[in-house]
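Quick one:
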Amino acid sequence: MKWSQYFLPTLREDPKDAEAVSHKLMVRAGLIRRLGSGAYSYLPFGLRALQKAAAIIREEMARAGAQELLLPVLQPMELWKTTGRAALLGEVLMRFKDRTGKEVVLGPTHEEVVTDLLKEIRSYKQLPLTVYQIQTKFRDEPRPRSGVIRSKEFLMKDAYSFDADLAGLDRSYQAMEQAYHRIFARCGLTILACEADPGVMGGIASREFMAPSESGEDRVVQCAACGYAANLEAARCAPRPPSPAPEQSKPLELVKTPGQHTVEQVSRFLKVEPSRLVKTLLYDVEKEQVAVLVRGDHEVNEAKLARVVGSPRFKLSSAQTIERVSGAPLGFTGPVKLTGVRLLADQAVAPLVNAVAGANQTDAHLINVNPGRDFTLDAVADLRMVTEQDACPQCQGALRFVQAIEVGHIFKLGTKYTEALGAVFQDGSGTMRPMIMGCYGIGINRIVAAAVEQHHDAQGIIWPAALAPFHALISLLEAGNADAARAGEEAARALTAAGYEVLVDDREQSPGSKLKDADLVGIPLQVVIGKVWQSQGEFEVSRRATKEKAHVAPARLVETVHKLLDTKVMPS
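Output:
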């Protein structure tokens, strides 16, 4: 392929709307162009990288025993209402009515559709079965950002397993987890496999595959000592050991705190650490109010709260509701004599002695508050976000926080969808039972973006060989030199015949601009036909990743490229 005939426009400057490294470089290197909010066109160079990732996924899905199919993007809203997810996803669903007035959804995922299809399975003899597709998804993201990392339209591989029992689900889940590790390793990504919250997918367990990146919108906690890793929403907070010499409880006392309603204000006014405060947050959960108690230096983890209250349908109470329930304005709510609500405490609150809490009176707080003595808790659970001061819940080692991009997520769904949609089978005893289901997603666009995030330098992209749109770039530094052009064509033919994908830069541009573009687009190997060829009859071959260079006779070019791409060692 000749660059002069290839649609590969490069830019010298970063796009003004781009913050993530991958967004900047994917636009500058001619992979993508923005059409509108959350919607991107893939140019030929970018599409080749996307197709390389998809090919790796297809190979590993086949190796894991999954069968490829293709499901409709257009989905009837009735399916989503049947499973209850129409209300859960709400405005994220892109919906419209067709000419008959029927409500239709542009598929954000396909659990409902594939379960409806697999109702054709009637016997345990047809199980287990795993199917997958590579399909465009649509989600009306409120804040599309970071280029293709979070967009409204994206390409996903979604797989679904159907088993007769939980043991079968465990086997299917393990096979997919192993396949995911192979996929990401082949794509050249560094990955953290993390405990995760199932979220709106539901189910009994899930695991995320996170690519560390400063542009990542997720935070992961990791323990270097034992390898524990978890998404911030799922990270467990280890209970702290009891104090060896607990202080004696003191009498409850009301103190005036005029105008002091934030944790920072109250702790400064009363000269106590924020960790001694009990922060009381009121939530509307279904048709009732729940008070969630966390320490002043902690934050509520709403994913954990959803699991404890048994519903994701909740929100912080309004100022009007807070005043009606507590008798005081926002900032003075406390658990003592707070009636008509459930009191849920984080496990770090329960052992507090002589704490500070709102008095449910304007401009007043209570000191020497003691859980159990001054108020009764309905439940104690892990309800907060982990902090940098927390120890690893597995080994008590130190935790570190990592920004990351979610590139894959796997779930044990159980019977959530099969029960709702009537996907049942007859077991060996003749009993009809719902199939046990798992689902497994990979964001293919995110694989490409994560590869750029993890493999770049100040000059541009450094493609992992498996995702590189081309293996080699032949740069003709003097495009008008007929002998050099002929040498470039012969080199391209030889490499192509050996199975390599080659781009020839034959553009009539300055040598400097060609070399800059070569670094920007990041093709793994560059073959320069310039001064060394004119003086010595040799090509200058360099690796993009290391800048190592070697002078190679034309007869040794294929051998050299093979060594560089396969062993990554420069020949002597």
